[in-house]
Amino acid sequence: MLPAPEDSGPPVAAAAAGGCADCRSGEWAARATAVAGPGGDCPPGLTAAARTAAENLGGSLRLELASFAGSAAGALSVAEPAAGRAFAELLRGTAGGPCQPIAVVIPKTAGVVGFRLAAGDAEGAGTCPPDGECALGAARWVAGPEIVRAPGAIVVLGVFRNLATDRERRGQLTVYFRPPSSRWRPPGG
């Protein structure tokens, strides 16, 4: 079993609640993770398809009304089926592959203040720069993080690539943001 990258914590957390050590006062963090299979090439057009799927998902009126924050995979249960269809199909199509689209959804009026890219496997975990190899080696983010501002939500998107040919790796995208108001809480929170 793969460990999560370090500092995995809850999927949505606030500085005030003590659940986000990296957040400053008034900030929240939302995280998404995905498992990438052993190394290989990314499918042609994956980044463009992920961007289009993120735009469609972010156009969901239900996400706006719910003021949703969390992983794009979690947003699929809130969004209108038509808005989430492309992202759901993208996730099904890349399942088990070495390249995984990973996205975080936050309220459309939130302010993105930063992000953290990470990777991990059974031998360790660490951070990743947006344009180079991850600290644990043989892994990188080939796209993103890209901020997609859509009518219903903001989607922050990246594509994680596992270059290790002998093991799975887990990629994690954390987005730090200021919510629409100090009274904002994630759905169910």
Overview of the structural elements:
With 189 residues, this protein is of the alpha+beta class. The chain has 4 helices and 9 strands, in the order ββααβααββββββ. It has helices at residues 46-58, 61-66, 72-75, 81-94; strands at 12-14, 28-36, 70-71, 99-107, 111-121, 124-128, 139-149, 153-162, 169-178. It has a 5-stranded antiparallel beta sheet with strand order 1-2-9-5-6, with no helix packed on it. Helix 1 packs antiparallel against helix 4. It is globular, with a radius of gyration of 16 Å.
Keywords, separated by commas or semicolons:
189 residues; alpha+beta; four-stranded antiparallel β-sheet; 4 helices
Overall pLDDT level: 89
What is the overall silhouette? globular
Cα-atom radius of gyration = 16 Å
Our measurement of the CA-to-CA distance between the termini, rounded to an integer number of angstroms, reads 29 Å
Q: Numbering strands along the chain, what is their spatial order in the largest sheet? A: 1-2-9-5-6
Kindly estimate the percentage of residues that lie in beta strands according to DSSP. 35-45%
User: What is the strand tally?
Assistant: 9
What is the SS-derived class? alpha+beta
Give start-end ranges of low-pLDDT stretches. none
Give the % helix.
10-25%
Main sheet summary: 5 strands, antiparallel
Structural topology:
Layout: E1 12-14, E2 28-36, H1 46-58, H2 61-66, E3 70-71, H3 72-75, H4 81-94, E4 99-107, E5 111-121, E6 124-128, E7 139-149, E8 153-162, E9 169-178
Antiparallel strand pairs: 1-2, 2-9, 3-4, 4-8, 5-6, 5-9, 7-8
Helix pairs in contact: 1-4
